[in-house]
């Protein structure tokens, strides 16, 4: 990845900035355990050389993980050009030949109808302004009988209005567009009406916000983040609200107030 100027770094979105400082290297919600659970539910081995689409792949760590485990052809897509550049470099370093990456918007997928055996997405479907539109896109690009597999964030319905409002504000700031974090019941309704068959929806709570960094790596990431916050006003303005929010709601964020759901179904 090429080194960016201070001005270019200041223009990065929060997810791209995290990728730039080496913080986007493991699953966002539920850690690798969540990924393994979802992969197991999919029974990928039962499909002969499946064609898989990984939506919102970031720097491609989950895409490469699936590519290295299964005889499949997998495409990772994401909005950000920096994350796709990193994803391609890392796939090249790992000598993986069954994985490709492209810049694309999940709201309007650049693939014909009936293209994929599996559409896979972690931490993306609940983080878009219009999940119903996105679910329709998954359905469109899946082959008949193709499988959908998503893992995403929900929050407890009994939380205070103040907390819910601030959470939605902060998550919208991180994502860079207005979104709403829904509760499990709301997802149940959306997914039951999504047009998929044989739906399974499960809720999980453990290791929700736990990223798989070694101690040394965590220190490096924190150092880089603080450095850029000190020298770069733009970055400081982008990250400060999230850090203030995390401090203010420390206790609420640690409880069972959030969880992640795993959703599978068939076209
Ligand atoms: C929370 S990260 C998830 C990354 C990875 N899937 C994981 O679980 O760790 C969300 C990713 O989705 C991407 N994204 C957000 N909106 C998108 C959209 N409309 N189309 C494609 N990617 C999008 C962001 O750029 C970001 O890399």
Helical stretch count?
11
Kindly report the CATH topology.
Rossmann fold
| Classification by helices and strands | alpha/beta
Computed Rg: 18 Å
Beta strand %: 15-25%
What molecules are bound to this protein?
S-adenosylmethionine
Main-sheet strand order equals 3-2-1-4-5-7-6
Give the total of beta strands: 7
Report the order of strands and helices.
Answer: HHHEHEHEEHEHHEHHHE
Shape: globular
In CATH terms, the superfamily is: Vaccinia Virus protein VP39
Give structural notes.
- With 267 residues, the chain is an alpha/beta fold.
- It has a single domain, classed as Vaccinia Virus protein VP39 (Rossmann fold).
- It is built from eleven helices and seven strands.
- The protein has helices at 6-10, 14-20, 31-42, 61-69, 81-93, 131-141, 161-175, 184-192, 215-231, 233-248, 250-254; strands at 51-55, 73-78, 99-103, 116-122, 142-155, 197-204, 258-266.
- A seven-stranded mixed β-sheet has the order 3-2-1-4-5-7-6, sandwiched between helices.
- Strand 2 (73-78), helix 5 and strand 3 form a beta-alpha-beta unit.
- The longest helix has 17 residues, at 215-231.
- The radius of gyration is 18 Å and the shape is globular.
- The termini are far apart.
- S-adenosylmethionine binds at residues 15, 27-28, 56-58, 62, 77-80, 83, 105-107, 122-124, 127-128.
